Amino acid sequence: MLKTICYKSRVNPNLRLLDFEALFNKTQLNNNSQNITGVLIKKDNEFFQILEGDSETLDTLYELIKKDYRHSKIKLHLNKPIKQLNFKSFDVGYSVINDIKTLYSLQFYIKTLQDNNIENSDFFFQFIESLLEPNS
After folding, report:
1. What backbone torsions phi and psi does residue 35 show, to the nearest 5 degrees?
2. Residues 52, 128, 74, CA angle at the centre, nearest 5°?
3. Which residues, in sequence order, are CB contacts of 58 under 8 Å at separation 6+?
4. Taking CA atoms, which of 18, 34, 122, 130 is between 20 and 30 Å from 82?
5. pLDDT band for position 134 (cuts 50, 70, 90)
6. Residues 135, 77, 67, CA angle at the centre, nearest 5°?
7. What gap in Å lies between CA 101 and CA 83, rounded to an integer?
8. Binning pLDDT at 50, 70 and 90, where does residue 23 land?
9. Taking 70 as the threshold, does the pLDDT of residue 136 lie above it?
10. Residues 6+ apart with CB under 8 A from 108
11. Could you tell me whether strands 2-11 and 71-82 are parallel, antiparallel, or unpaired per DSSP bridges?
């Protein structure tokens, strides 16, 4: 069974640029090897992540995420079954958003999902819209 998990968290203020690069690379490698798709966004001092994949695999991963020192104040926004992987075709299956142009491309991608009535697309679109606002 497939599911999606979406959460937001506070970035550990002691992390350096190299720490972020290592996190993004490790996340991409691990998730690709486990057929997990999604997107990881860092904006200012917050992470926002959408994950999709096998239910048991995601539950295990989320337990590890909750214990990760690189962030705190994790708030789960979505944890529910899905019928298909919606982010599989978004930029090589798993993407790290690290500039505004890519964030806009994600917004466009989610708008396309929304236009096709794909489940959870309204929620994702609203969340991405909030990330584009200053001081969100």
Report:
1. 60, 40
2. 60
3. 3, 4, 5, 36, 51, 52
4. 130
5. low
6. 95
7. 29
8. confident
9. no
10. none
11. antiparallel
Comparing C-alpha atoms, which of 103, 109, 115 is closest to residue 86? 109
More reliable by pLDDT, 132 or 117: 117
3-class secondary structure, 36: coil
Phi, psi dihedral angles at 84 (to 5 degrees)? -150, 160
Give bridge partners of residue 51 from the DSSP assignment: 5, 38
pLDDT digits (tens, 9 = 90+) for 67-103: 999 899 999 988 999 888 887 766 544 456 667 777 7
Confidence band, pLDDT 50/70/90 cuts, at residue 56: very high
Gap between the Cα atoms of 37 and 50, Å rounded: 8
Query: With b meaning 16 or more CB within 10 Å and e meaning fewer, what string describes 86-102?
Result: bbeebeebbbbbeeeee
